[in-house]
């Protein structure tokens, strides 16, 4: 069967097929990893930054700049160990510099022993809390724990001062774009940023690579076919390497609109032939504008962590990974074990931080918009299996 794809999407028919119902929304970032996206520009007064405490005239020279701090032999050795272990040292060294500068100490004082490190970190958190109330120090804990470990300091497993646990409680595990909103995004992104960025948007929502993986992704999609009720439907298969996990993940493209977009991309050539920072800045901006258009965020509001608007504002690209998790859960009868194999370390990470199952989902178990459609449809279709989702999409989006 040949894939015949129309030049445009009949959005009106899609909306008519699915009655709009506001979803229950709540989001968070995956705190287990450090993702940097282009953030909205904010002006901070000098006095509000813990990175710029007033230094005395006799302060050590290595505290006057990150470059001088990085030239310390202890930090050079740490950086080299990070590289040997294929970790980005900048993630840790910048935070170590902040800790040392705030406390006005040499990094060697952090590794006298674990008890000393605990006391110093508690002093840092005290300073941090006065300047950044209600903001997490989790990444600073990760930095000091890594610094201790690489300097052979035994870390107490049940430390209360520098615990290994995450601050995230899955506050944002229900954030997503519903089917109608995603459709609107295809038109909005292309109109305001161009086809390449529309492709990045579509691929991220369908295959959910991490942002830094997305910027360098070169399409390697192969067309496969699935038989449903005597008809053969094409879908896409691809492999994506996630550097963070040092692992290849097999990806699937079910949405024929996304498959059509990929057919216009060159194989083994980056989707967007621009520097990663340029891609990040442009895509972040157009996504924020789109989220405002949808009413997800308000420019006049300053969102705190724990509010869904914080993720839409500060992690606009990564938000799509959350949304994709919800999408794939809805395609697989909420099978977290199956979905996790497509891009997460384990089902617990997925269901805790990305796509928490609700009572409503439990009651939807067994429902399928293809073979067991409900009398009242919503704007988030659910299916008993990916193959039935595939067949449904081809019917609803007018693909032969």
Describe this structure in words.
- The protein has 400 residues and is mostly helical.
- Helix content is 45%, strand content 6%.
- It has helices at residues 11-17, 66-70, 73-84, 90-103, 114-131, 138-150, 179-193, 195-207, 211-214, 256-263, 276-294, 308-314, 318-331, 336-340, 347-354, 359-364, 386-396, and strands at residues 222-228, 231-242, 247-253.
- A three-stranded antiparallel sheet has the order 1-2-3.
- It is elongated, with a radius of gyration of 24 Å.
- The termini are close together.
- Mean pLDDT is 84; it is low at 6-35 and 44-48.
Quaternary status: single chain
Instruction: Label the structural class.
Output: mainly alpha
- Share of helix, binned: 40-55%
Biggest sheet features: 3 strands, antiparallel
Which keywords apply here?
mainly alpha, 400 residues, elongated
Describe the structure concisely.
By secondary structure, the protein is mainly alpha-helical. It has helices at 11-17, 66-70, 73-84, 90-103, 114-131, 138-150, 179-193, 195-207, 211-214, 256-263, 276-294, 308-314, 318-331, 336-340, 347-354, 359-364, 386-396, and strands at 222-228, 231-242, 247-253. It is 45% helix and 6% strand.
């Amino acid at each position: 069967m040949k894939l015949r794809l129309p030049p445009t999407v009949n959005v009106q028919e899609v909306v008519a097929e699915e009655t709009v119902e506001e979803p229950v929304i709540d989001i968070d970032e995956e705190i287990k990893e450090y993702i940097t996206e282009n953030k909205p520009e904010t002006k901070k007064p000098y006095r509000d930054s813990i990175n710029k405490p007033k230094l005395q005239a006799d302060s050590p020279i290595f505290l006057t700049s990150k470059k001088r701090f990085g030239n310390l032999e202890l930090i050079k050795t740490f950086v080299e160990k990070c590289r040997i272990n294929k970790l980005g040292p900048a993630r840790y060294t910048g935070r170590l510099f902040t800790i040392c500068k705030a406390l006005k100490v040499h990094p060697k004082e952090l590794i006298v022993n674990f008890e000393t490190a605990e006391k110093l970190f508690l002093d840092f958190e005290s300073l941090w809390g006065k300047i950044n109330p209600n903001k997490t120090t989790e990444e600073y804990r990760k930095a000091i724990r890594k610094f201790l470990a690489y300097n052979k300091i035994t870390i107490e497993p049940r430390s209360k001062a520098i615990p290994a646990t995450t601050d995230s409680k899955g506050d944002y595990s229900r954030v997503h774009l519903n089917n109608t909103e995603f459709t609107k995004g295809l038109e909005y992104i292309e109109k305001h940023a161009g086809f390449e960025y529309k492709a990045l948007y579509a691929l991220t929502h369908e295959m959910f690579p991490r942002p830094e993986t997305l910027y360098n992704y070169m399409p390697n999609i192969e067309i496969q076919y699935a038989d449903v009720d005597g008809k053969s439907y094409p879908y896409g298969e691809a492999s994506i390497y996630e550097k963070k996990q040092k692992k290849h993940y097999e990806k699937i493209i079910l949405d024929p609109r996304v498959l059509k977009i990929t057919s216009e991309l060159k194989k083994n050539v980056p989707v967007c032939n621009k520097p990663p920072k340029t891609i990040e800045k442009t895509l972040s901006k157009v996504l924020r504008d789109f989220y405002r258009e949808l009413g997800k965020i308000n420019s006049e509001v300053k969102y705190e962590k724990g509010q869904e608007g914080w993720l839409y504002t500060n992690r606009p690209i990564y938000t799509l990974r959350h949304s994709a998790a919800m999408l794939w859960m809805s395609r697989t009868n909420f099978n977290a074990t199956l979905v996790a194999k497509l891009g997460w370390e384990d089902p617990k990470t997925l269901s805790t931080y990305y796509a928490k199952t609700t009572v409503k989902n439990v009651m939807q178990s067994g429902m399928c918009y293809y073979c067991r459609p409900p009398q009242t449809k919503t704007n988030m279709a659910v299916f008993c299996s990916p193959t039935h989702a595939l067949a449904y999409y081809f019917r609803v989006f007018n693909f032969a």
